[in-house]
Amino acid sequence: MTYNEAQKHIIHQSLRPDPMRLPELEAVLADINRIILGKERPIRLSVACLLARGHLLIEDLPGVGKTTLAHVLARVLGLDFQRIQFTSDMLPADILGVSIFDRGSGAFHFHPGPIFTQVVLADEINRATPKAQSALLEAMEERQVTAEGETRALPQPFFVIATQNPTHQIGTFPLPESQLDRFLLKIELGYPDAAAERELLAGADRHEMVANLGPRIAPQQLIDLQNKVRAVHASAALIDYVQALAAHTRTTPRWQAGLSPRACLALLAVARAWALLEGRDHVLPEDVQAVLPGVIAHRLRPADDVAHTDSHAVAAALIEAVPLP
Amino acid sequence: MARADRPVSGRQAWWLLATALAASAPLVQQVPLWLALVAACAFAWRAALTWRQWHLPPRWLLVLLVMAGTVGVFLQYRSIMGRTPGIALLVVFLALKLLELRAARDAVATALLCYFLVLGQFLFTQTIATALLAGLTVLITTATLLAASDDRPQPQQQLRRAALLLAQAMPFMLLLFVLFPRVQGPLWGLPQDRFSAVSGLSDTMAPGTIAQLSQSDAIAFRVRFEGAVPAQSQLYWRGPVMPAFDGRSWRVAQTRGAYPAVPYAGSGTPVDYEVTLEPHGKFWLFALEMPATLPADSALTVDYQPIARQAVRNRMRYTQSAWPEAIAGERESPAMLRAALALPDGGNPRTRAVGAAWRAQHGEDGAAILAAAQSLFNQQLLIYTLNPPLLGPDMVDEFLFDTKRGFCEHFAAAFVFSLRSAGVPARVVAGYQGGEVNPVDGYLEVRQYDAHAWAEAWIAGRGWVRVDPTAISAPSRINSNLAAAIPAGEGLPFLARAAWLKDLRHRLDAVTNGWNQWVLGYNPQRQRDLLASLGMSAPDWRSMTAVLSVLCGAVMLGLTAWILRNRLRVDPALAAWRRFTRRLARRGIAWQPWEGPLAFAERAAALAPLHAAGIREIAALYVRLRYGPAPQGSDLERLKRRIAGFRP
């Protein structure tokens, strides 16, 4: 019995309507699922990422719905949305904003850049030079922007969805591992299955659907939910499990480098959000296992990694190697 | 990729190189120089391979090198069997194996080869230093083996893990050492070429042979007395007896049979003692005069010297006793007496003349002639020295009347010659005189510089009588030691004089002796005695094996409990859950150890739909207890009840 075999059951089961789950979150997910078809799991993960106050990295081919996902998320959560298309000639000021001399008042005026919004879609982040990348990543980490000697706070909540093309494509500046670590989760959307794609092709225009979408929750509600995530209980047995997973990655020669303490914190934070999405006030090993692929995808690399490895296979191997404490 | 096929990383290669160096360095003086150079080159090549990341040498070249090395070893020793050629071959193989580190299995093979080389060191020496060095090398090799499976931890971490492993193995090692049934023989069966060059007494004595020994402070044997140590002047350790004289050198008689038991009656209080004899390659055993009992597997020559059945090639321990005042050889055979009177034709006319004069004066009265000889030696004012002048053909005459300077062999030879020329049967006895009690462990240490020669005269009615002519001229040699008798400034081993070093040396000797007695000399007899003193009556190999198995099992359990001491404290909810999963497993629904409880419950519910509700309830209860925020005791009771009532 492998993890994936066992999982087939659970995915099927967990998609049943569950009276325990929070209705407002279920409504949010239902709206997104109506527009982006057949991607329940990545969508759930991206909402969990948002609830855990993290930032999301999506690596995938163009045209699988990355932008739409970001857009829809902002719409249903009632948040402002800006998109920054990263290019190789981009400068930090293009992201953060710039001060321009105002002849009328005789002083410099700061014109905030596109980052001053609640949901930022940083498209094709690895097309930009490291200088521009790091401007964005610093803002993500500190949730504030320092320009022209003045520090300006970014709006709350602040959520960055960055997309990147697979790194083997030409014209990319791969993000260094330390920068990648600032994204809480990395997910892939992938091609939809045949039935979902058919529905997409036969259905209404997606742009129109997004435009007609109204917010499902108020911003304050979202902040409350984020606070609730922090209160989800992680028992000693569960923390043992997270530690056992990390210890295994550190002591087994299978991985190039083990999970860092920051990665463990990230794993626990997303697992908490996942548990809340499941309508529970405590984290289960199942939650940790469910979010593990997204957490380790950009943090853990097998020692014999030659090319791009499927993060689900990597996570399954890790799960199967570590018994529950 | 299979574990054994993983490539060897740079760090692992450095580990292996360090281990190979540590394992082969102590053997450098045992292998020929060319081989040491070849090994050094291979090590350097390995270092360059790792450092510069060169390609490994091609296989045909390695095969060629191995063949060349084997042929070289064969040409050197004319054999590839035996101790030294075998070790030399292992060194060749190890050095070349380093050049074909392709996969993890090569690393493991190299480490195992290093363990063999560590064992190989013990074929050459078995001192404490060897054991300590070997322990260190085993530690490094074990760390290398650990690194071969995981090369990421830092070297000090690997060493710590290896040390922990060895520490855990230590109780088993001690148990096996003490309790594993011993076989008779040394700990390390050694081939015959072991003692080609050891210092010690030989079976001939010419001027200078014993003086040469005085330059060595090596231990000849150690003695533990049952009672008090006899007076220094009584410590005559009888060695080879030399009745035959050819004008220059004295030699032992050709063996003419041996006594299986002591042929003379004893008198006085016997002195019991135990000798630990260092190997000297000869047959004889040293015994305090006169031997009263014989060690096992030995006999007494016709001139009362105990000899072993086999040459003493390994350290040997025997118990014996002595009669200080025995009358030996009262009824000596005429042939023996004739041999003890034989003189070469011609030479030493002055001594012969003196002897003839004594004969004319005292006739058959051997005791009176003996007294006359002693007074002659007294009057001549002979000087005891390590550096006597060279003597010509009439060496007895020259020594007694011209140079008057000599070492104990001159005194003994001249004394016996003069007695023989007066018609009194006499012979030279070689051996050791004196010894020094080590205050640390109470053993009497007899060193090579205690080698001595004295005379034995046959007097009618008294048998063989010991006369030490050296004692006439240099009584301090007999009453205290060599250093006291030799004028200051004559070369002696440092230790024989330097008092301030003696204390340190005594301690080291006591440690070495303890090692020899209890580790290297732990033979079946010692084992029986030790086990008997621990309360095992009549231990045979069966009972020893049984006790060994029981104790090893106990140590194993203890170690396991120590390792599991944290894991043994099981959450009661988890214990109940395990009971539940075992029950389902009997139904063919196996819980995977990594499977989350709710996930498992869903899977099990689908497989056993009749019990779905019960399974889900139990899983929900368990999850609340183990992962929930405030677990309640009543939930635990409910969980236990549900599981007790659960019959899939």
Shape of chain B: elongated
List the domain count of chain B as a whole number.
Answer: 4
> Please, what is the oligomeric state?
heterodimer
Mean pLDDT across every amino acid position of chain A:
84
Low-confidence stretches of chain A: none
Strand-residue fraction of chain A?
A: 5-15%
Number of DSSP helices of chain B? 24
What does this structure look like?
Chain A is built from 14 helices and 9 strands. With 325 residues, chain A is an alpha/beta fold. Chain A has one domain (3-321): P-loop containing nucleotide triphosphate hydrolases (Rossmann fold). Chain A starts with a helix and ends with a helix. By secondary structure, chain B is of the alpha+beta class. Chain B folds into 4 domains: 3-168, no CATH class; 204-503, no CATH class; 524-536 and 543-567; 572-644, no CATH class. In chain B, helix 7 (155-179) packs antiparallel against helix 20 (541-564). The relative contact order of chain B is 0.08. The chains are: A alpha/beta (325), B alpha+beta (648).
